[in-house]
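seq:
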Amino acid sequence: MSDIDLRIELRQTPAGIVGYEPLPEHRIKLHVGAPVAGACQFHRFLYTRGDLDIVPAGVSDVWHEEAASTSLMLRVSTALLRRTADEMGLPAECATLAQRHQFRDAHIEHIAWALDAERRAGFPNGTLYADSLGTALAVHLLSGQRRPEPVPARGLTRPQLRRVTEHIEAHLDGDLSLSSLADVAGLSASHLKTLFKRSTGLPVHEYVVHRRVDRARGLLLRSDLPASQVALESGFSHQSHMARCMRRVLGVTPGEVRRAG
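struct:
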């Protein structure tokens, strides 16, 4: 998955006409501000926190709002939907979205807030985390098209698991991506997510976090590298990111690990 397959931005619009020009990507708008009344050519409405709209690629839209409005805008590439549809065994014509207004979907909302938290933190978890969110969103958006092809109940084969984990270890200090790991396993990204968790008990991204924490712990115990350098050598974006992950996984801070050594 490329870094432009799924993007998020905070959108603030003043009272008045709200217009969306046709774009080559799908847009999903999550209303996150105070309630806002408005009207379109068909009816009046009241946006409240959690309301969603979908503006498909190539489609324009316009309405009027009586007050300033705040929303999160997910931008989903058509390539992501096409690729995910293919991985799900869906025909190409199913890789589309219908225009929708003022609906609720807890799964989409959860993904939007997770990606926004990542954006506000400066994307410390790298490409792999955004890839995972993008794949989860695409699978969810397409899940109503048709029942996906069944995924075998087993996990990864031993050779597949070995190749993937060895690749993770060799590139732990880099920006791993779900697509690169899927290529190593010889699977689609969506199938890798499912089978990897069955094999290890952890989602791919969480497994990588655990391995990075373990590497950081070893470096803190066995070297005199400053904590900032340990963070980079272990694949964390910065020292505070390492500290947050270490506290979550091990229940201790980097300083406590070093003093214990």
